[in-house]
Here is the input.
Amino acid sequence: MEFNKALLIHHHHSGKANRENTVGLVAGVLAPAVPELVIVRTDEPGEGEKLCRERGEQFDVVFILGGDGTVHECVNGLADLQHPPLIGILPGGTCNDFARSLGISPDAEIAAQEMLAGRVVSIDVGRANDRVFTNFFGIGLISDASQNINENLKGALGKLSYFISTLQTISHTEPFRYQLEADGKEMEGEAVMIYAANGRFLGTNALPFAPDALQDGELDVLIIHETGIPLLREILSHKPEGEWQPQSESISYFKASTLKVKTDAPMSADTDGELYMKTPAELSVLTGHLKFLTGEGY
Here is the structure.
C-alpha cells in the first residue's frame, strides 16, 4: 500500500531504553516508502492525544511507536475525528498487548515492514464514559496491580514486573460489591476483579476469547469472584476452539455490547494500563470504528 503522507509519533519516556535507535530503525524502513514522513517526539502526558486530534486528518496514516499507554493516548485523539487516518502500531512498550491482538511482530523494525504490506482491518474500539480504549477496562485486582508496579523493576525486568506485581497484589486484594447492567440485564454480587476486554492479550498472555474479538461488536466480560493463582491459570492457559466456558464457579464470563458498572464506593479503573478513571462507568462498543494496519499473524 502506498502512503503519501505519514506521521510517526514516539514518546520520549515510553518503553525500551534504546528508543532513539529504534526510531532510526523504523524510520529507515518507512522513509523510502513514504514521500513525506513527519517524525514527532512527545514528552508530556496528553501531548500525543492533542497532536493526533489537531493534525491527524492531515495524514494518510499515523504510526505510533510505543506501548499500550502511548497507543491509548493517541487513539483517544484519533477516535473523534470525522475522517481519521489509518493507524499503524510499532511496538515499543513493555507488553504491547494490543499490537499482539493485531498480530503485529514485537520487533519494531519487522513491524514497520508489516505496516507497509497494507493489510487494513476495521477494528472495534471500546468507550468508557467519555474516553475510548483499545484493549481493556478493568477494576479491582487489575487496577491494584497496575498501581503497585515498581517503575524501577518495570524498566529492568519488563513484563516480569507485571507478574511480580500481580503476585504481590493477589494476597492483599479485598472483594468489593458491584452492580452491573449488561445489555439491559441487571446483576450484582461480590468480586475481586471485573475485566471488560476488546483485545485478546493481557500482560503478553493470550486470553481465551474468540479470534474475532476485535470485530464482533461486543466486549468479553470477566468477573472474578475470588482470587487465587489457579483462577489466573485457567484464564491464561485456555486456548479456545469454540466459545469459552469457565470450569470454575469463581469465574463468570459473558459478552455484552453495553455495560454499566457501579460499585459501593468509587474505585480506580484501569483502561489499557492507564489509571485516571473511577467508577461508576458506562461502557459501549464503537463497532469497526477505526482502521488499523495489521501484522501477518492477524
User: Anything to note?
Assistant: The mean pLDDT is 88. The two ends are 17 Å apart (CA to CA). The chain is about 25% helix and 35% strand. Residues 142 and 298 are 26 Å apart (CA to CA).
